[in-house]
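TASK: fixed-backbone design
INPUT:
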């Protein structure tokens, strides 16, 4: 006799496969790639779809950062906030430097540019002149001064994450020290947080359309064929980023009581969105929300992730040393150990000076090579055609690095709910 299956009374009905956000985004990426490949002109014309989605997400970033940080700090002891910020910066400096070293080592071992024998004099400097000019505008001092907004509304109007972060921290500290008079403001901001994050959820429903437009444009304009000429460099970069994420960051995750594979599965929606748009900013609001749901407290998430978007750029750092040595090898430029150490030190500084700049990876590379006289800046023209494809990997690695950082710093602070994290990872 057949016994009918009885559904548990409290079990939620199973969602159809296409109702999942990651499936919709994957479909958008696949359709966009097909349109871009078979109908390049049509693909290029779809650029506004991707741009519009990124603009919509950037619109909500400033309120999310402000509310998360201000309420997180106001509800906590200021000494604890200072400890979290200090631990986060130690983590950022350590792993950003490690990423630079990994890129340097892999470039020396694999030597992706060896055998190209390109004469630097034959390269067109005009192709990268605009990036070099932007690089010269960046400096560590200028970067630090730019953190301070000219006006409070200006920080929100421009959408500069670091300026919003700066004001949010100061305002949170002011609320924390205001005592009873500050409590109504804290209550209002906490109440405002719920509809803002609800708005994030509504906006993210447009992610498949944004992914479709961005991918159609990328394939239509740059073409998959452009990767073939520099397949060794692109392949080496993706492999290095993979080894860094699942080797270095994987070991950090295991030491801190969770699996990098579980974390990557948990943030797959955000990773697919970044893959399509080549912008880690597109996933910032939803990443912050997910890290809170995974058991990290609001005060830790609010400080670590927005700050990490400027100071914890693992993918960008791997790219800088790897690309610099590729150019040197391709142009038969000999770099001594001293030259490579100088390159490493300058990259550590320039990566902070160009943080938050559009196209930061390529501009940061230009800033680094401008200071290192041994490597010809004109050599950047060699990788200009495939930089768009590598920017996706940079953004993916940066996103995973900041997700790991938020959970690790939360655990160091005793602000990570392990059981909640495991439940979130299990879905």
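OUTPUT:
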């Amino acid at each position: 006799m057949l016994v009918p299956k009885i559904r548990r009374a409290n079990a939620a009905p199973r969602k159809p496969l296409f109702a999942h956000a990651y499936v919709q985004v994957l479909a958008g990426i696949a359709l966009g790639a097909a349109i871009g490949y078979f109908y390049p002109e049509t693909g290029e014309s779809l650029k506004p779809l991707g741009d519009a989605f990124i603009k919509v997400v950037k619109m909500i970033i400033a309120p999310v950062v402000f509310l998360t940080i201000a309420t997180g700090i106001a509800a906590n002891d200021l000494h604890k906030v200072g400890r979290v910020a200090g631990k986060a910066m130690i983590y950022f400096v350590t792993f950003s430097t490690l990423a630079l070293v990994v890129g340097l080592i892999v470039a020396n071992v694999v030597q992706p540019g060896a055998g190209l024998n390109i004469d630097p004099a034959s390269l067109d400097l005009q192709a990268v002149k605009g990036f070099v000019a932007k690089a010269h505008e960046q400096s560590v001092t200028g970067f630090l001064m730019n953190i301070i907004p000219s006006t409070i509304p200006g920080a929100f109007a421009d959408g500069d994450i670091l300026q919003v972060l700066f004001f949010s921290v100061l305002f949170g500290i002011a609320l924390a020290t205001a005592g009873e008079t500050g409590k109504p403001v804290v209550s209002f901001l906490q109440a405002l947080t719920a509809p803002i994050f609800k708005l994030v959820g509504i906006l993210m429903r447009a992610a498949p359309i944004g992914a479709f437009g961005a991918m159609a444009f990328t394939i239509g304009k740059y073409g998959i064929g452009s990767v073939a000429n520099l397949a060794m460099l692109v392949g080496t970069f993706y492999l290095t980023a993979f080894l860094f994420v699942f080797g270095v960051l994987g070991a950090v995750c295991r030491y801190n009581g969770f699996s990098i594979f579980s974390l990557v599965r948990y943030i797959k929606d955000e990773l697919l969105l970044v893959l399509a748009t080549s912008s880690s900013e597109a996933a910032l609001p939803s990443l912050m929300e997910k890290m809170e749901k995974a058991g990290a407290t609001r005060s830790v998430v609010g400080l670590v992730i927005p700050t990490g978007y400027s100071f914890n750029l693992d993918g960008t750092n791997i790219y800088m040393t790897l690309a610099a040595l590729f150019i040197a090898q391709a142009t038969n430029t000999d770099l001594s150990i001293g030259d490579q150490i100088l390159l490493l030190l300058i990259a550590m500084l320039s990566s902070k000076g160009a943080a938050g700049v559009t196209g930061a990876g390529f501009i940061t590379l230009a800033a680094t090579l401008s200071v290192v006289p041994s490597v010809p800046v004109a050599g950047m023209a060699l990788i200009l055609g495939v930089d768009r494809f590598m920017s996706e990997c940079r953004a993916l690695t940066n996103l995973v690095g900041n997700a790991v950082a938020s959970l690790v710093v939360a655990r160091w602070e005793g602000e990570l709910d392990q059981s909640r994290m495991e439940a979130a990872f299990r879905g």
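COMMENT: The two ends are 35 Å apart (CA to CA).
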